[in-house]
Each structure stands twice: as structure tokens, then as C-alpha cells.
Amino acid sequence: MKEKERYIDFDAYERAKEPHKREKAYYWATAIGLQKVDGLETSDYLKEVAQRNIEGEINIEKAQELVRTYYQSKVNHDGDNDDKQEADLASTHIAQLLSEPTFAFTVAGLQAIHKRIFQGIFKFAGKIRDYDITKKEWVLRGDTVLYVSAPDIRRAIEYDLEQEREFSYKDMSLDEMIPHIAKFVSGIWQIHPFGEGNTRTTAVFTIKYLRSLGFKVENDIFAKNAWYFRNALVRANYHNYEKNIDYNYSFIERFFRNLLLGEHNELKNRYMLINPPEEWKQTDPTSNPSSNPSSNPSSKKNENFLTDNEYILKLVSSIKEEFLSLHQIMTALGLKDRVSFRKVYLVPALEEGFIKMLHPENPKHPRQKYLLTVKGLALYNNIKEKNKR
Questions:
Q1: Helix axes 153-166, 107-118, angle to 10 degrees
Q2: For residue 267, what is the DSSP state?
Q3: 357: part of which helix (H) or strand (E)?
Q4: What is the distance between the alpha carbons of residues 8 and 47, in angstroms, rounded to a whole number?
Q5: Helical H runs in the chain?
Q6: Alpha-carbon gap, residue 227 to 267, rounded angstroms
Q7: Taking a C-beta distance cutoff of 8 angstroms, is the pair 237, 230 a contact?
């Protein structure tokens, strides 16, 4: 008789009072869920190890060691095949990557994410492919996206990163930010710089980039909608003028609106299928994101970007769109007690992702300054709009 598959109640951990358990559960839920983009399932052993890490019995390094040792032994693991080995090892690596605050917005940084996820799995881990690829997609009825040719990959990544680095979110509304982020991520994925594992790498890169912009990104949307995420990227990068099919970003925008704005747009893979059956067409919602007003009341729509903390509001209003030192901010606020300022204003704003340091690698840098994150800019723009009324 087949044993019942091991199950981790990640939703229960999300409701848990212990923040360290919630965070670890999020890392593991995302890491395990992302394996589904390539049709992979993790083993019961991996889930057991993950739960021990979440509960604090072992650290992430020990979890990785246990999984590596498990597959290095010659014991028959009850049908845990090569696919499960890949899923298990990649999951432990992703969980560790997500637990780390560091992030490099460079070509080397993207390569490092791929290398760390697939080290010990693919011989080409971290190496940019030197051959062209095509992939038959279910959502495209067997057709493929046109990926960047091998000789142009590095230049394409550098160009996309440089364009995003120089892009200004100043004066943008939240509705304008989401399409921009969706297109940037879609562009990185379309390059497909590696032989395998591009979607998992793009997902981890995206999560870490969004965090660098100030967004917490600590829900289970990637975990529960990994296959949708991939298909939405496919549709965003596919066009066929003979069949009158153009690029469609609406699906990936729905995903990011749910992720960043807390909306509840329906994420169904069948809506993205080219030429779907007639009965599927009848249930397909409008192509516009947020098509169901009842699920997205305006009072809740932007809650992930806003705050009712009066001290954070004052701090954000004082920094505006400038780079200010600690002394300059305190002067603007009319404050003199540095200890109280740090505790009441600065630390909460940093922890909530509304501001960031100009030199995060060295918090005590003699020329340290503070500026608003993209999340902080969204809050500042909202404050300006309210003041105009």
C-alpha cells in the first residue's frame, strides 16, 4: 500500500506568531513551489528536512548537508529518482538564497543565482549558454518563444539591467509601476541566458530585486502559481502576426498586481492558451487586470504600499526625492535626539522598506545618506496627491 505523501501546512506557518518561522516557511514554500515550473516534485525526505529547519531544529546549512548526503548514499530511496534529486537540491539552494539579504543587480549577480541554485545538478550551472534554443510550449499549442541568440546574450542582459538601473519611478502611480516591472521581468526571462532553469532563476532574481526596491514579497503567490508565472512570461514574449497574435502582458501584470498590491485577480493557466476550446472562452475574464471590482476594493487596493505610521509618513515627506544624511533628515524634522530618532523614525522605515541606505554594505559609512525606495516613492506620491486635494 502506497504511503500518504508528506504534507507541510505552510498556511498555518503564515498565521504563526513567530516571525522567524513565518519567514522560513515562506522561503521553503517558494523554493518547493518553483520546482513545478519544470514539472518537478520534491521528495518526502526534503519536506521533512524543510520542516525541521522551519521549526528551528537545524539551520539551512545543515538542511543542505542532509539532502546532499541523502542522495550521495547508495541506498534505494523508494523511487526518489533524478528528477526528485534535482527538485530537492534546487529547493534547498533557493531557500538559502531567499534567506540572504544580499543582492547584485548585475550580469554576474544573475549568473551567481543560477550557479547557486543548480550547483551539483547541472555541469553548466552559472554559465551563459553558447547555443541557440527553442522550447515547445503547451500554452502556445507547441510553438516557441523566440529567445535571444547565444552571441547576443550578455549584451542583452547588460542593456536591460542598465535601462532599469537608469529608470526613474519618480511621480509614477502604482498602476504605472506594475506594467513597468512586469515588462522588465519579462524581458530578462525572454533572454533565457542558461541552458535550463531559466524560470526558477528569473523568479529568485525577481524576488530579490523587488526586495531591493522596498517590497516585502513574502506571500505564497510564487509557490502556488509557479506554472502560471511561467506561462504568463511565455505569453508576454510571444507574437505571431500570421495568426493575429500580439504580445500580451495582461497575464503577467495580473500576477504582479496580486503579488505587490494584494489584489485577487484570478490566475488560471487555461485563460492563456492560444485558441482555447469554446467552453473555456466563456469563463475567461476580461484581459484587463483587476477586472473584478468586488475583489479589489479601492480602500484595500494599495495597502501594501501605504502605512498609517505617522513617523514614517513624516520621514518620507522630509526625504522626498533627495539623498539626505542623518543630520539633514533630523534638521528637516526639527529633531535633536539621535537615539530616539533612530528608534522611532529611521529603523521602522528601513524595516518596512520605505527607505534605504546609499551605502548598505557599510551602515557606518562616513558619507552615509538615505533615500526613498520605489515603495517609499509610491508612498510619497500618495502623500503629494492627498495634499493637492
A1: 120
A2: -
A3: strand 355-357
A4: 7
A5: 10-14, 19-33, 44-54, 60-72, 82-99, 107-118, 153-166, 174-191, 198-212, 221-224, 226-236, 250-261, 278-281, 298-301, 310-319, 326-333, 338-341, 347-351, 374-388
A6: 10
A7: no
Average pLDDT over residues 2-19: 71
Contact of 237 with 140, CB cutoff 8 Å: no
Beta partners for residue 371, in sequence order: 356
C-beta separation of 98 from 31 below 8 A: yes
Per-residue pLDDT tens digits for 13-42: 777 778 788 889 999 999 999 999 999 999
Rounded Cα distance between 158 and 27, Å, is 28
Q: Phi-psi bin for 132: left (phi > 0), alpha (psi -120 to 50), beta?
A: beta
Give the confidence band of 219 by pLDDT, cuts at 50, 70, 90. confident
**From CA 66, how far away is CA 322, in angstroms rounded?**
48
Q: What is the rounded distance in angstroms from the CA atom of residue 222 to the CA atom of residue 296?
A: 20
Is the pLDDT at 187 greater than 80? The verdict is yes
Q: Does the structure show a pLDDT above 50 at 2?
A: no
Average pLDDT score over residue span 120-130: 97
Please, are residues 363 and 373 in contact by the beta-carbon 8 Å criterion?
Answer: no
Banded pLDDT at 228 (limits 50, 70, 90): very high
Average pLDDT over residues 91-111: 96
- Report, as an integer, the average pLDDT of 126-142: 95
For CA atoms 29, 224, 235, 37, the dihedral sign is: positive
User: What's the CA gap between 361 and 357, in Å, rounded?
Assistant: 9
